Amino acid sequence: MENSSLRILIVSNEALNPASSNGRTMMKMLSGIPADNIASFCLRGNNDSGTCSQCYIVSDRDALQAVLNPRAFSKQRHLRTKYENERSDDRPENKDLPTLGEKKIQRNCKNMVIRDLIWRTYRWWTKEFETFVRTFSPNVLLFQAGDAPFMFRISIRIAKKFKLPVVVFNTENYVLKKFMYSSVTRQTIWHWILKRRLQKAYNSMDKIANCFVYATDYLRQEYSKIYHCQSHTIYGATDMPLLEEIPHDGFVVSYIGNLGVGRHKPLMDVAHVIEEISPDAKLRIFGNFPSDSIKNEVCAIPSVEYQGIIPYDKVKQEMQKSDLLLHCESKDELQDLIAAFSTKISDSLASGIPFLVYADRNFPFVKYLEEHGAAFVAESPSELKEILRNCMESDSFRKKNVKAARALSEANHNTLRNSEKMINILINTAEHMK
């Protein structure tokens, strides 16, 4: 089967869109497939990337409306084509969870269980939706797994009804963790129900899926201890070119990315160490702090220059103005984020800008980077101080890991190579249905 014969139906939370990390990841994996050969069913996002011919969007709010007001739901347009780049006025913002009036429902286990019940009524599953799938005529279903049991059930139902083979792409370990979310600190009846439903949905998917693709070797190894479906590893890919450093004043360490999940704590460590070493050195931080109090606490450190949020297309320029790119994780989040592999890691490895990681060495991604000599790794302020001082004093020391980082990027994070691997998996799956 040729690439042009492959017709992929994606089932995922987010549309193929570079605005989100999940959207970018999926776009890069399918970069060798024509847009006319890709369609998707998703819960949120805009089909404006030009990489998907048509996108059927049903938000959480829509699913709730289908239960409470079927007539109003039936009047909405859910199908978007690649030619409709603007979001029409009749589409609501696709929030993570349903809203009732102006009050947003909090993301907790109880509400996630209720959300699951709403979706499992299948009131949103209409003749229009079936016509969308039948007209597109896919020959393989690609499911991006997450924390919602109903998404597994929807994928299984589509696969069975339209007799489609299934490939599952998984970047998370919700099924394996003791507690699904960091906000959960003890077992409750709602958490038990939610996790039990997710485990049962994963078990059902394991029985009907043709193969699973995991985002890291760690995830693949951990899941393989319990589930025995054929599996592969494809790391997150990047299109980041080799960058030339732009001359700038002082020594600059840049952190660009998510500032949640306790990352402000290690960032403060880094800022304090930089301040101790040199008054001319700076820690530039790009992103959105989870609260003003945390932002004020971090920005009170003299070495910090907070730059706010920047769009992804501006990231390259800011990376070029850096002497070190920084990624960090809080030790307090080790159990919750044990399987984390930030998209910024792939970008940093490819950029040619020296890369520093400040995190516990028990994180699998840290072991991965250290094993390949692709980054500076520190897990204590004293170790961090030594690395930073050496980088400031010696340009050759600062750049000593760049060659290995680029080699690792080319081997495991190359968009073209990873896309070919995923496409081959999809073609083989389409040709050899169970």
Set out the fold topology:
Blueprint: E1 8-14, H1 21-29, E2 38-44, E3 54-57, H2 60-68, H3 70-74, E4 79-81, E5 99-100, E6 103-104, H4 109-119, H5 127-136, E7 140-145, H6 149-161, E8 166-170, H7 189-208, E9 211-214, H8 217-224, E10 231-233, E11 252-256, H9 264-277, E12 282-286, H10 292-299, E13 304-308, H11 315-320, E14 324-328, H12 343-351, E15 355-358, H13 364-371, E16 376-378, H14 381-393, H15 395-398, H16 402-412, H17 415-431
Parallel strand pairs: 1-2, 1-7, 2-3, 7-8, 8-9, 9-10, 11-12, 11-14, 12-13, 14-15, 15-16
Antiparallel strand pairs: 3-4, 5-6
Give average pLDDT, whole number.
Answer: 90
- Spatial strand order of the main sheet: 4-3-2-1-7-8-9-10
**Looking at this structure, what is the CATH superfamily of the largest domain?**
Glycogen Phosphorylase B
CATH class label of the largest domain: Alpha Beta
Structural class: alpha/beta
User: Strand percentage, roughly?
Assistant: 15-25%
How many strand segments? 16
Low-confidence stretches are 85-103
Molecular structure report:
With 434 residues, this protein is of the alpha/beta class. It folds into two domains: 3-237 and 415-431, Glycogen Phosphorylase B (Rossmann fold, 3-Layer(aba) Sandwich), CATH 3.40.50.2000; 252-412, Glycogen Phosphorylase B (Rossmann fold, 3-Layer(aba) Sandwich). Helices cover 40% and strands 16% of the residues. It contains 17 helices and 16 strands. It has helices spanning 21-29, 60-68, 70-74, 109-119, 127-136, 149-161, 189-208, 217-224, 264-277, 292-299, 315-320, 343-351, 364-371, 381-393, 395-398, 402-412, 415-431; strands spanning 8-14, 38-44, 54-57, 79-81, 99-100, 103-104, 140-145, 166-170, 211-214, 231-233, 252-256, 282-286, 304-308, 324-328, 355-358, 376-378. The chain has an eight-stranded mixed β-sheet with strand order 4-3-2-1-7-8-9-10, sandwiched between helices. A six-stranded parallel β-sheet has the order 13-12-11-14-15-16, sandwiched between helices. A two-stranded antiparallel ribbon has the order 5-6. Helix 9 (264-277) crosses helix 14. The protein is globular, with a radius of gyration of 23 Å. Residues 85-103 have low confidence and may be disordered.
